[in-house]
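Supplementary Methods. Inverse-folding protocol.

Structures were first reduced to a discrete structure-token string of length 311. This string, shown here, constituted the complete conditioning input.
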């Protein structure tokens, strides 16, 4: 086969020139059907002469050109319709209402929590449900929280969230979270060195989540005032443990101590030498200077102790 095209270009399949005899040409079955459909039965034959074949070729060339023009017109009409549809579609969708922010959702939750819980401490809301996308249906739409409840003995909650306009229209959003209680903890505002006594002027307050306040953390101002660092300086803004503090030393080792003995309205006093240091309330050993007898006395103030006879 030397050359082949579809109906738009040519309907003839040429055989090798060496196969032509007496000016004859073979027409394929497909092209014969095309000749019949075009109404040229007179041209139909298994073998056609060159003259008749040339006439047929001209007819089908015109038919192909007409069909090509028709396709072009249809293509232009389709493009025109597409442009019309494109212009009919608006360039941008209508503006939608803004979504509720997480801050607004937390404020609404706090309002509901205050209705069902009596919490004296300040608290924060930690939502486990993230990426809440809840849009307003209109400018007057508000949040609606339903079935808010807490797990027994905990601050973990769950409930349903929607908007007033979306209720019954859009599905509820299940929300979960917990409350984090906030405590005000006393801390020092400046560096306190060992042997330096903490005064009320040295104390400031810092808000801390309850979860970060472990056991042994000083939570009352009275537990700081009058205390001194036990070993290391105390830095400002740092949570202070009771083990970091000690009462100030009122009696040092080898200090002369005024010893007082009281019993049923009788008060006696004497002097002694401290065998060890002690803070207020500590029980220390003291050597009586007149009798060289060792006794135990409880530190009451600087240089003073109350006697306790060793039986």
């Amino acid at each position: 086969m030397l050359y082949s095209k579809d109906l738009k270009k040519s309907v003839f399949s040429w055989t090798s020139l060496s196969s032509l005899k007496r000016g004859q040409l073979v027409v394929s079955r497909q092209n014969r059907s095309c000749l019949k459909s075009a109404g040229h039965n007179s041209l139909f034959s298994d073998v056609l002469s060159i003259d008749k074949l040339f006439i047929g070729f001209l007819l089908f060339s015109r038919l192909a050109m007409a069909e090509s023009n028709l396709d072009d017109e249809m293509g232009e009409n389709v493009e025109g319709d597409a442009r019309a549809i494109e212009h009919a579609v608006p360039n941008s969708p209508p503006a939608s209402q803004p979504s509720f922010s997480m801050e607004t959702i937390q404020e609404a939750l706090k309002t509901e929590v205050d209705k069902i819980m009596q919490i004296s401490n300040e608290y924060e809301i930690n939502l486990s449900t993230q990426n809440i996308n809840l849009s307003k249906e209109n400018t007057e739409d508000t949040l609606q929280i339903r079935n808010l409840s807490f797990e027994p003995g905990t601050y973990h909650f769950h409930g349903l969230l929607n908007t007033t306009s979306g209720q019954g229209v859009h599905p509820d959003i299940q929300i979960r979270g917990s409350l984090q209680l906030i405590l005000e903890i006393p801390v020092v505002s400046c560096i306190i060195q060992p042997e330096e006594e903490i005064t009320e002027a040295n104390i400031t307050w810092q808000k801390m989540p309850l979860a970060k306040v472990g056991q042994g953390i000083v939570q009352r101002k009275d537990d700081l005032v009058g205390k001194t660092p036990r070993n290391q300086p105390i830095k400002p803004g740092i949570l202070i443990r009771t083990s970091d503090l000690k009462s100030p030393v009122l009696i040092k080792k080898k200090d002369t101590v005024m010893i007082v003995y009281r019993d049923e309205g009788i008060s006696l006093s004497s002097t002694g030498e401290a065998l060890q240091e002690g803070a207020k309330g500590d029980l220390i050993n003291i050597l009586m200077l007149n009798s060289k007898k060792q006794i135990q006395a409880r530190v009451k103030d600087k240089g003073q102790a109350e006697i306790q006879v060793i039986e």
